[in-house]
Amino acid sequence: MDKIIILDFGSQTTQLIGRRIRDFGVYSEIYHGDIELTPEILTEDVKGVILSGSPYSVYEEGAPKPDRAVYSLDIPLLGICYGFQRMTEDHGGKVAPLEKKEYGRSRICIKEKNPLLEGIPDGFVSWMSHGDSLDRMAPGFALVGLSEHGLPAVGYNREKNMYGLQFHPEVTHCERGLDILENFVCSICGANKEWSMDRYIEEEGAKIRARVGSEKVLLLISGGVDSTVAGGLLLKTLDPDQVYLMYIDTGMMRKGESEEVAANLKELGARHLFLIDARDRFLSRLEGVSDPEKKRKIIGDMFIRVQEEEINSHIAGDYFLAQGTLYTDLIESGKGVGNKANVIKSHHNVGTPLVEAKREKGLIVEPLEMLYKDEVRRLGTLLGIDGKIVHRHPFPGPGLGIRIIGDVTEEKCRILREADYIYIQELHKRDLYREIWQAFSVLTTVRSVGVAGDARDYGYVLALRAVVSLDGMTADVYDFPMKDLLEISSLITNSVREIGRVVYDISSKPPATIEWE
Q1: CATH superfamily of the domain spanning 3-188
Q2: pLDDT of 180-189, one tens digit each?
Q3: How far apart are CA 404 and CA 420, in angstroms?
Q4: What is the C-alpha to C-alpha distance for residues 3 and 185, in angstroms, rounded to an integer?
Q5: Per-residue confidence at 329, pLDDT binned at 50, 70, 90?
């Protein structure tokens, strides 16, 4: 099967490059950026190599470098952002810091046509994310595209079959980005389209069976899309008698969620299902804790502690711990494929000491760790999971605990639960839910003066969030119809006495993350 190799230098979107390539049916593999390119890696079916972005600058001490052999391969090479800069520096060009950084949308002026830009119109909108630029092109490289700010954006070396992009074609908000990647992979590299999600199910299933054997597997299931699809894949792959599903009610769940989760899990055909009420244990540990990272780690540790306390009465002997971890969780926690990734935020099923201990023992199974949210939805559909679950908006493992800014209390959970329920139900009623990738409410620490009847009141400020995205790596603000926004705001303040004001979050990702904490 033809494939493309991606060398990862720590970019937050490296895996996104790989899955974009898989989207149009070509298999891709990701390796550390500085790996030795041995014959075992550079097999005959490798049709091209991509150098990823990086949080580093090429002139920094310790900046990652590829094996020099990558520049002498008889196959096409594409550098994206840092990858283009690395290619430039390594061939005698110069990279320098910009006085004014270039982030976000930028139109591209095409100076000269070349195979990478075949069929791409002049003036298309790219997505920039860099603080360095090419100060001098390397000998043999032609500059064929400029950003609207007059900075180098596209270059190539015809003789060496090397191409470079200063922007990120893999992100959703880059116009024609997928066409540019497909030009490289299919036209320039000549790779055949032989990859599919059905094949992923087959190959991932084989890996799970080989890893687990006849041992028991416990999945901590939240009832959200990720853990439910992970459960469905485990039940399809293994003997259902090996699979143990445990749902833990933390006290930070959405309204009616525990009852809905119980019904959904039974429909999956699970033979071992444990529903644990741990509300008091979680909320007592969170008392007085306001720091977001501490809250995440406490919640993550408590998930494992409660599991350990409860599981002995249900499972005898050792077992594997399965999680619905996605690649976005791993890369935001600095656990990407490469060894140069930065931590953006810790995830409860990635960075806690107890999870790390399980990982070190080789007892972690994460069947979705190479997938993004939209791929998980497609996988769930193929597994036959109910569409209402598959298309449910993402809900973080720490639940309402990270949607309550500051310390978490039972009363704050109740307030947010009621407000968020009204918000989401109204989105369904108004046929807006499926237009939005993720919508939720945030209870802020701000108290604002207001008027309730003829009396002065002092209520919480609630923030509404709604974004559109394909994969969660980048996101735009949902263009909310003002009439609906006004009516939903009014319903919330009239129904939830403690909330006196509603605001709408208009921040995109980047620079913001989707969740507030």
Answers
A1: Class I glutamine amidotransferase (GATase) domain (3.40.50.880)
A2: 999 999 999 9
A3: 12
A4: 9
A5: low
Domain 3-188 shares a fold with domain 197-390: yes
Extract the tokens encoding 154. Answer: 């596209």
| Gyration radius of the chain over CA positions | 24
Write the DSSP assignment of 267-331 as a string of letters.
HTT-SEEEEEE-HHHHHHHTTT---HHHHHHHHHHHHHHHHHHHHTTT--S--EEE----HHHHH
The answer to whether 247 touches 265, Cβ cutoff 8 Å, is yes
Q: What residues are labeled active site? A: 81, 168, 170
Domain 197-390: give its CATH code. 3.40.50.620
Q: Which residues pair with 218 in a beta bridge?
A: 244, 321
- Convert 483-508 into a string of H (helix), E (strand) and C (coil): HHHHHHHHHHHHHCCCEEEEEECCCC
pLDDT one-digit tens code per residue, 467-476: 998 777 778 9
How many angstroms separate the Cα of 337 from the Cα of each of 182, 196, 328?
Answer: 23, 21, 11
Q: Where are the beta strands (DSSP E) in 307-454?
A: 320-322, 364-365, 438-452
Give the torsion sign (CA, 474, 338, 374, 21): positive
Q: Does domain 408-504 have CATH number 3.30.300.10?
A: yes
- Whole-model pTM over 0.85: no
